[in-house]
Amino acid sequence: MSQDSFSLPAAARPGRVALRVGSLDRVVPFYREVLGLEADREGNQVRLRASGTPLLELQEAPDAPERGPEEAGLFHVAFLYPDRAALGERLEAIRASDYDLTGASDHNVSEALYLRDPESNGVELYRDRPAEQWPSSDDGVDIDTLPLDLADLARAADDEDEREHDHRPVDADAGGDLVAPAGTVVGHVHLETADLARAEAFYVDGLGLRIRSRYGEGASFLAVGDYHHHLGLNSWNDRSERAAGNGRGLAWFEFVVPEAETLDRVTERLAERGHAVDRRDSRAIVTDPDGTELRLKAA
């Protein structure tokens, strides 16, 4: 990778994520019931939001092929909740639903619940611990994977001391389920890559993310500023092919930058490194080395 010091400004952040699915009727209830997102449908597309903020788009494509076992693509999309009580509420919603946890972890920097949606897209729900509590070393932030005390997390849903936001509103159209509170965002996106070094170079040298931690030769965690990670990259499942580009799963994901000047600089850097960039006023579209579409937007 190059030795220049360009980094995205601290105000940059992940934006929306889009998934291509075979059936909206099958998938939308999961995101409403389990994540507490509110839905608006227009034709073959559903936009899911938290307190008016769009987070996820589902595109119905019944004829789209399923993702092949060798293809790079989505590991999970991670939704960040504003406090522990909000995450505890989502745990209660999961337990009341027909969906099961696939994992639950204490990562030192965060507490996380893991599931798969009805079309096997990976989903993480998490809350951050205060940044001053994150363990670190000379190599960056230390993210671990430890057992999560689910009973204690469930109690947090009713603990006023854990509650930083008023997030008791309900979605009348979803049977009175509690909705996600204001401040719920896409915290990070985690990708499976066919070539970890090449993907890391694209997102660090081109986009301007910082390496926050590495796990041997199998995973890298990248971020804007000092966050633990806005993007995860891993080669754990030995993916060896680019994403097909028209199949089910991740259609695209977005990074929002604070101003047009930053967008100009990023698109220039990507183009200088041989990546085709489609610039559209305050937006740009580029495909990463694994065939994943990245959308850039100036706020």
Please, could you describe this protein's structure?
- The chain is an alpha+beta fold and 299 residues long.
- The chain has one domain (13-298): 2,3-Dihydroxybiphenyl 1,2-Dioxygenase, domain 1 (Roll).
- The chain is built from five helices and 21 strands.
- It has a nine-stranded mixed β-sheet with strand order 11-6-7-8-5-14-17-16-15, with helices on one face.
- A hairpin with a 2-residue loop joins strand 9 and strand 10.
- Helix 2 (84-95) packs across helix 3 (150-156).
- The longest helix has 13 residues, at 260-272.
- The radius of gyration is 19 Å and the shape is globular.
- The two termini are 28 Å apart.
Topology readout:
Elements: E1 13-21, H1 24-33, E2 38-42, E3 45-50, E4 53-60, E5 73-80, H2 84-95, E6 103-106, E7 110-116, E8 122-128, E9 136-137, E10 140-141, E11 146-147, H3 150-156, E12 170-171, E13 177-178, E14 185-192, H4 196-207, E15 210-215, E16 219-223, E17 231-234, E18 249-257, H5 260-272, E19 277-280, E20 283-287, E21 293-298
Parallel strand pairs: 1-4, 5-8, 14-17, 18-21
Antiparallel strand pairs: 1-18, 2-3, 3-4, 5-14, 6-7, 6-11, 7-8, 9-10, 12-13, 15-16, 16-17, 19-20, 20-21
Helix pairs in contact: 2-3, 4-5
Question: Which runs of at least 5 residues are low in confidence (pLDDT < 50)?
Answer: none
Lateral arrangement of strands in the main beta sheet: 11-6-7-8-5-14-17-16-15
Structural class by helix and strand composition: alpha+beta
Number of domains: 1
Task: Give the CATH level 1 class.
Answer: Alpha Beta
CATH level-four homologous superfamily name: 2,3-Dihydroxybiphenyl 1,2-Dioxygenase, domain 1
Helix content: 10-25%
Q: Give the percentage of residues in beta strands.
A: 35-45%
Instruction: Count up the helices.
Output: 5
Identify the CATH architecture. Answer: Roll
| Overall pLDDT score | 93
Largest sheet: 9 strands, mixed
Helix-strand string: EHEEEEHEEEEEEHEEEHEEEEHEEE
For the terminal residues, how far apart are their CA atoms? 28 Å
What do we call the CATH topology?
2,3-Dihydroxybiphenyl 1,2-Dioxygenase, domain 1
Q: What is the radius of gyration computed over CA atoms, rounded to a whole number of angstroms?
A: 19 Å
Q: Which shape, going by the Cα principal axes?
A: globular
DSSP summary, beta strand count? 21
